[in-house]
Here is the input.
Amino acid sequence: MDTRKLGKTDIEITPLIFGTWQAGKSGWVGVEDEAVIQAMQAALDAGITTFDTAEVYGNGYSEELVGKALGNRRDRVILATKVFPNHLKHDQVIEACENSLRRMQTDVIDLYQIHWPSGAFKSEIVPIAETMGALNQLKDQGKIRAIGVSNFSKAQIEEAMEYGRIDSLQPPYSLFWRGVETELRPYCVENELTILAYSSLAQGLLTGKFGPDHEFPKEDVRSKNKLFQPPLYGKAQAALEQLRPIARRYHTTLGNLALAWLMAQPQTTAIVGARNGEQAKENAQAAAVSLSADDLAEIDAISRTVTDHLPSDPVMWNFG
Here is the structure.
C-alpha cells in the first residue's frame, strides 16, 4: 500500500488507518478480543501499517489489545493514540503518555493527539499553552514523534499552533458527514496538517448492511448517532441505493467505494475499524480503488442529498 507523509514530519502513514475504538468494547456490543487482535494482524498483513487508539477506549483496554496484537511487530507499525480532556494539565499529560506507552508495549508513540478540547465532557478548563508545553516536552524526550488534535475547531487549532507544531487533525468525516470541508479542510491543506477522518463509514451506515428498519441496542453508541435517526436515516438509505450501481462498476463494496472517495479528498486519510480479520482484509482493498473525476462528482452529488440536511452541530451523537 502506498504511504503518505504525516503533516510536515518524516512519518509515513497509510491512507487507510486501522481504528480501534471497538476494541475497548465500551459503547460497542458483540466485540471479541481474539477476533479484534486477529483483525489488527490481518490489517497489517494486508498493508495497513497505521493504527489509531485512545486511552479512553475501554479505559485503556483498547491500547492493551493494540500492544498484544502488534507489540512483537512494532518496527512495522505506526502507532497513534490520544489523551482525554480530563488529563490535559502538564503532569497529567506526562502520566497519561507513560501509561499509554506501557499499555501498548512501546518506547515511543508516533502520533500523540489531544482527543477533545479542554472543557469537553465537563472537564476542567486547562490553558492550551500548558498542555502543549507537556506535549513539546514529550517530543523533546523522544517519547512522542508528532502532535495532533481531534475534534478541534479552526480557532482552537490556530491557538494550539502558537505553542508548537500540530501535524494532524482527527475529525468526523465521511460521505454522510462533511462539516470539515467548510473551514477545517482548507486550513489543513494550507498548513500541511493531515486529516485523519474518523467514522469514515459513518459507523457502518455506508456499508449498506443496515436495512431501513434496523435498530441498535441502547448500549451501542450508534443508537445515539444522528445519522441513524429519522429523517436522516431514510435519506441515507435512498442515497445508498444510488451509490450501489457505482460500486458495481468498480467491482467493489459500498463501504470501499465510500473509503475510496474519502481518500481521494485533499490531505485526507480514512480511519476504519474492523471486528475480525475478514473485515480488515476487505477494508484494505479500498486502497486499490481509483475513482474517475466523473464518478467522484456523481458520488459528491449523491452525498449532498444527505449532508444538506445535517444539523450545524459538529458532534455526530446525541450524547445527552
Notes: The two ends are 40 Å apart (CA to CA). The domain at 4-210+253-289 is CATH 3.20.20.100 (TIM Barrel). The chain has one domain: 4-210+253-289. DSSP finds ten helices and ten strands in the chain.
